[in-house]
Amino acid sequence: MNDHRIVLIPGDGIGPEVSGAVRRVFREVEAPVEWEEQQAGVAALSGSDDVLPESTLASIQDHRVALKGPCTTPVGSGFRSVNVRLRKALNLYVAVRPIRSLPGVETRYQDVDIVVLRENTEGLYSGIENEVAPGVVTSIKVATELASSRIARWAFHYAKERGRKKVTVMHKANIMKLADGMFVRCAKKAHEESGLSDVGYEEVIIDAGCMRIVQDPEQYDVLLLQNLYGDVISDLCAGLVGGLGVVPGANIGEDCAIFEAVHGSAPDIAGKGVANPLALLMSSVMMLNYLAETRADARCREAAERIKVAYNRALEDGQKTRDLGGELNTEQFVEALVARLG
Ligand SMILES: NC(=O)c1ccc[n+]([C@@H]2O[C@H](COP(=O)([O-])OP(=O)(O)OC[C@H]3O[C@@H](n4cnc5c(N)ncnc54)[C@H](O)[C@@H]3O)[C@@H](O)[C@H]2O)c1
User: Fold this and answer.
1) Is residue 71 in contact with ligand 1, taking CB distance under 6 Å?
2) Can you name the CATH fold of 1-93+246-342?
């Protein structure tokens, strides 16, 4: 079997630093991946007038799998988010964000193992905003039965495949009776139709849900949320296990998948060589497992396992970057990981 041609988008800020770390580790484990580098984000503007060049989009459509660094989005004005555009353009309707306690990373909690499933294509991220009169703005939340049912069915399928015990829908259907009400109804129906009596189902109003997550995260398993809620809850959950430096993600659709860390371009530390590369490395492990499953390639599973074992060993041995209370910079952490590759 040939190596897999995968699109690599370094992105902005710390993106080139953390994607460089992934390249290095993939070389060391001889992962069966051949990179095709493409640009997106502010980084793309040196060769294009668009932060999401047509050639980048076409390359992902062609190769179907990408690993992406973070892309900067200006606050309050300027261009629309590259991430939102990509997810919509490629119909990557579910964001999967596993949030797990890690060995050697001390936090207030011991056994967090939550998977956030975020609807990725609509909700308040529809980008429809109008100033209807001076000083009066409307932001439109788009919710469709199609997208709500699609992600709900995906969630129960995922729970079954991964042996997860419970899916919790977090919502605000007491206030947004139509949009959130429909999301909850679709989730309930998908659970009933799944016939999965051994996968629990619950509905929680999201404000109380936030409190419960912080008080006792170990009671949660799979969380199913609309777009904005999923975005916010992902970062909240990241805080339970050591921060944004250790939370990976995948954006998955029928035809393509883009793997990326939950964190952004971290302008406060960009260019300093201190970013934690783990979140993107873990995303790359998810990508290898996805390739192993969808393309029946055992070499990918083996490479994923070797990387995972090595970073867990490094953490257990106290080899950590500064965000986790350690002293290593990006390169030193990568060296520590490489030294522990089996
Ligand atoms: N998927 C994406 O491309 C994506 C996701 C989120 C934010 N963003 C963009 O990133 C930019 C910055 O956003 P922000 O500051 O709100 O969030 P951020 O995630 O970039 O940073 C938040 C904090 O976490 C720290 N942090 C993040 N990743 C880290 C890592 N790997 N190692 C160590 N510390 C890390 C940062 O230093 C910062 O203090 C914005 O333009 C935003 O739109 C992009």
Assistant:
1) yes
2) Isopropylmalate Dehydrogenase (3.40.718)
CA angle 280, 108, 318 (to 5 degrees): 55
Over the chain (342 residues), the average pLDDT of each successive run of 10 is 96 98 98 98 94 97 98 89 94 98 96 98 92 96 98 97 97 98 98 95 98 97 98 98 98 97 98 98 98 97 98 98 98 98 94
Can you give the residue ranges of every domain in the chain? Answer: 1-93+246-342, 108-241
The superfamily in CATH containing domain 108-241 is Isopropylmalate Dehydrogenase (3.40.718.10)
Ligand 1 atom with the shortest distance to the CA of 323: 33
Ligand 1 neighbourhood includes 275 CB (under 6 angstroms): yes
- pLDDT tens digits for 242-272? 999 999 999 999 999 999 999 999 999 999 9
pTM higher than the cut 0.90: yes
Q: Is the CB of 169 under 6 A from ligand 1?
A: no
**Residue 320 annotated in active site:** no
* SS3 letters across 34-101: EEEECCCCHHHHHCCCCCCCHHHHHHHHHHCEEEECCCCCCCCCCCCCHHHHHHHHCCCCEEEEEEEC
